[in-house]
Amino acid sequence: xxxxxxxCGKSRPNEAFSAKGHRIHVCNKCRPYTKTQEYQLARMRxxxxxxxxxxxxxxxxxxxxxxxxxxxxxxxxxxxxxxxEVSRIRSHKRKRIGMLRAKHPALFRRLIxxxxxxxxxxxxxxxxxxxxxxxxxxxxxxxxxxIDEEHV
Length: 152
Ligand SMILES: [Zn+2]
Known about the structure:
Elements: E1 2-4, E2 11-13, H1 19-24, H2 31-34, H3 37-53, H4 59-68, H5 74-89, H6 96-103, H7 105-113, H8 119-125
Antiparallel strand pairs: 1-2
Helix pairs in contact: 3-5, 4-5, 6-7
Bound molecules: zinc ion.
């Protein structure tokens, strides 16, 4: 019974993992690679991507994203900045893509250019107006509707 190394993707026996390697699922052969900047940056990009695709971007996540914005890697800093902007507009994932497309087309475009969202995501999520949990968590949603109309 072994483990799959998430760097090389190979399934290896327990002996191929050190104690620390076990925890991060990296086999001994790949351990040196985890010390490289290339690996560290790839992990940060994954992290940023995951924030965007999880259900909600929390305040804690935002704090972390703000830290990542300070990265000396322009690439990572730019991605973190984009996701941070998105989280400030709409921290919940639901309806986010359709909303960004409608209300923040420039930011929407940058997300696609950066590879953070894909045209497939847009097809799937842009018109999810009738998703089952449609009535939940609406308080957090700012459509910028003219409030005055309600009082006419
Ligand atoms: Zn490996």
